[in-house]
């Protein structure tokens, strides 16, 4: 029986194709029960790699079933057929994804960015409080509903955090995500704190929201890493960003994992709070540097308008240029359309690297 017939039996009238990869695709469908359109991710077990079937898919299904937050894409139903196809029926991001929105309309005004970023941060806090980490935060995975509210999607790389005997979250060794959004420790192949990794990606997303460009050029990973480790963040002067906004971005793009803020600190930052001042504007001078010291300063370069305006495109993944570069690869997602991209696959498992990583995609 084909997909349309299977979905029809479950009360869905299949619509257009939203995206397709080697072993998964996303279709739109009309739900006769819900009386509105949904997205259906269809995964073919017969075509999927073993590590996806054994690790990533069970994690995604488990996590999707437990999440219930207004800024996270809802999962309505998950079912599987006898021939090995898994159907995940989800909320449809009717206004597309944030990347396309910014590419079409340009950078957001700070008030709009604040609203959307607060929605996203609330979703991440909800996940982190449940010890769930996303590990693939990027603009393509932030869908927009009919009112242009943020809906976090694609939990294909997500996992439940493990804790040691003392209750501390253990480090992750599975290196995944998109290079342009990946924290320096991940690019270097260092075992990382998964919640802290999410925070770096949040910093990249907020930069894109308010600047309309990428904070770092990932066409040269080695050079990008050097700039990141020097804690340099260049802001386009033409955007006239407030010091509070630049301060928050700078804090999140902190290369020292022990100094990078947690999600509660981000939500309590003065810029995120529409009315609360938290830190007075006077504490941040006109150059955007905190009078508290170097922690909240950045290193602007001459003509930073040109140097920070990295072209905003869907980011493909690059191989980390570190001593572990032969062992870790950041994988690209094959479904880049609104809906849910799937096909998470890393070439480093938590038990050790797999041999012969694929070629770097450029």
From TrEMBL:
Basic and acidic residues bias (residue ranges): 303-326
Root EC class: transferase
Biased composition (Polar residues): 290-302
EC number, UniProt record: 2.7.11.1
SMART domains in alphabetical order: S_TKc
Domain of life where this protein originates: Eukaryota
The entry's keywords: ATP-binding, Developmental protein, Differentiation, Kinase, Magnesium, Metal-binding, Nucleotide-binding, Phosphoprotein, Serine/threonine-protein kinase, Spermatogenesis, Transferase, Ubl conjugation
Domain Protein kinase: 12-272
Region (Disordered) location: 281-362
Positions annotated to bind ATP: 41
Catalytically driven reaction(s): L-threonyl-[protein] + ATP = O-phospho-L-threonyl-[protein] + ADP + H(+); L-seryl-[protein] + ATP = O-phospho-L-seryl-[protein] + ADP + H(+)
CDD domains: STKc_TSSK1_2-like
Required cofactor names: Mg(2+)
One MF term in the entry's GO annotations: kinase activity
PROSITE patterns in the cross-refs: PROTEIN_KINASE_ATP, PROTEIN_KINASE_DOM, PROTEIN_KINASE_ST
Membership in a protein family: Belongs to the protein kinase superfamily. CAMK Ser/Thr protein kinase family.
PANTHER family xrefs: MAP/MICROTUBULE AFFINITY-REGULATING KINASE, TESTIS-SPECIFIC SERINE_THREONINE-PROTEIN KINASE 1
Entry protein name: non-specific serine/threonine protein kinase
Gene giving rise to this polypeptide: TSSK1B
């Amino acid at each position: 029986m084909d997909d349309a017939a299977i979905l029809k039996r479950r009360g869905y009238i299949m619509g257009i194709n939203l995206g397709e990869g080697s072993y998964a695709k996303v279709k739109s469908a009309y739900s006769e029960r819900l009386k509105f359109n949904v997205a259906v991710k269809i995964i073919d077990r017969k075509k999927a790699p073993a590590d996806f079937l054994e690790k990533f898919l069970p994690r995604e299904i488990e996590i999707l079933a437990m999440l219930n937050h207004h800024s996270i894409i809802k999962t309505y139903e998950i079912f599987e057929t006898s021939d090995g196809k898994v159907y995940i029926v989800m909320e449809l991001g009717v206004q597309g994804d944030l990347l396309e929105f910014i590419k079409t309309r340009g950078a957001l005004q700070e008030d709009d960015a604040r609203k959307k970023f607060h929605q996203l941060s609330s979703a991440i806090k909800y996940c982190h409080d449940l010890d769930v980490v996303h590990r693939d935060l990027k603009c393509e995975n932030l869908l927009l509903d009919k009112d242009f509210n943020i809906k976090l999607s694609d939990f294909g790389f997500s996992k439940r955090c493990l804790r040691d005997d003392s209750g501390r979250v253990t480090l992750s060794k599975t290196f995944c995500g998109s290079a342009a959004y990946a924290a320096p420790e991940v690019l270097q192949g260092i075992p990382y704190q998964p919640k802290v990794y999410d925070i770096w990606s949040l910093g990249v997303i907020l930069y894109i929201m308010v600047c309309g460009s990428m904070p770092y050029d990932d066409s040269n990973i080695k050079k990008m890493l050097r700039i990141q480790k020097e804690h340099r963040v260049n802001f386009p002067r033409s955007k006239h960003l407030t010091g509070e906004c630049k301060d928050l971005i700078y804090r999140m793009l902190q290369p020292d994992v022990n100094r990078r803020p947690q999600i509660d600190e981000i939500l309590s930052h003065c810029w995120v709070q529409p009315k609360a001042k938290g830190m007075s504007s006077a504490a941040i001078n006109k150059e955007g540097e905190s009078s508290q010291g170097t922690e909240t300063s950045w290193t602007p370069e001459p003509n930073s308008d040109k140097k920070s305006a990295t072209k905003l495109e869907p980011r493909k993944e690059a191989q980390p240029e570190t001593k572990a570069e032969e062992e870790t690869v950041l994988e690209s997602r094959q479904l880049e359309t609104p809906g849910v991209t799937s096909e998470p696959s890393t070439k480093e498992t938590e038990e050790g690297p797999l041999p012969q990583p694929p070629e770097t995609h450029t």
